[in-house]
Every structure is written in structure tokens, then in C-alpha cells.
Specification:
Blueprint lengths: L6 E5 L10 E4 L10 H4 L3 E2 L7 H7 L6 H12 L3 H13 L2 E5 L8 H10 L2
Helix pairs in contact: 3-5
Length: 119
């Protein structure tokens, strides 16, 4: 388990902070009501976001989260190069994984952080 990685998750609607580090949005669709300026992104990585089909199926329903996690992890298996790039980057600087969902515990950023830390 990679414990030396500097990763955190944060809702994109929260104000950017000095300790966010590299701000990475992992959503397929741009979050409603947020301007590009306010987002202060370093990267918007749609390829690491859950597929449209998976996102629509999940619908942010907490009771589906366990299965969502498994399906999303499966999708991420096709992104090993990107995941490795982020792992390497997060050894040197903090990465703030941003998401648009209201639920802070049941979203793709939480799963992605776990996947990055689990190798």
C-alpha cells in the first residue's frame, strides 16, 4: 500500500485553498455553476472519470455505491498508465482530486484515491 502519496479529495464547489496542490477534476461533465476561473484547475481528466453508462446507472444512490466501486475499479484497470503518472506525481506534490457530487463519502474521487493508494 502506497502510504507516501499526497492525495486528498474535495468538492469542486469548495473554495480553492493554498494546500490543495495540483487540482485534478475527475468528472465527465463540467460541474454546473462553476466557472473555469473559479475552479482553478490544473487538469480536467475525463478519461479517469466513470463512464457515462456507469455514472447514469449509479445516480449517486448510496445503496448502489458498493457495486459502483467495483465497476469503476474495473474501468480504471484500462487506465494504468494514467494512474501510474498520478502516483508518481503525488509522491512529489499533493494532488487534490475534485468531484462535483454532493455526497463526500460516496463518489468517484473517493474510489480513485483508494485505487491510487492501494498499489
Amino acid at each position: 500500500m502506497a502510504k507516501n502519496l499526497k492525495l486528498k479529495t474535495k468538492r469542486i464547489y469548495e473554495n480553492p485553498a493554498n494546500n490543495d496542490g495540483y487540482r485534478l477534476l475527475v468528472d465527465r461533465i463540467w460541474p454546473r455553476g462553476i466557472s473555469k476561473e473559479k475552479a482553478q484547475l490544473d487538469e480536467w481528466n475525463k478519461d479517469l472519470a466513470p463512464s457515462d453508462d456507469l455514472r447514469k446507472w449509479f445516480g449517486h444512490q448510496e445503496e448502489k455505491f458498493q457495486e459502483f466501486k467495483e465497476r469503476y475499479r474495473k474501468e480504471l484497470e484500462n487506465c494504468e498508465e494514467e494512474l501510474e503518472r498520478l502516483r508518481e506525481m503525488s509522491k512529489k506534490k499533493r494532488i487534490c482530486i475534485l468531484y462535483g457530487a454532493k455526497d463526500k463519502e460516496h463518489n468517484q474521487a473517493v474510489v480513485l484515491k483508494d485505487v491510487l493508494e492501494s498499489k
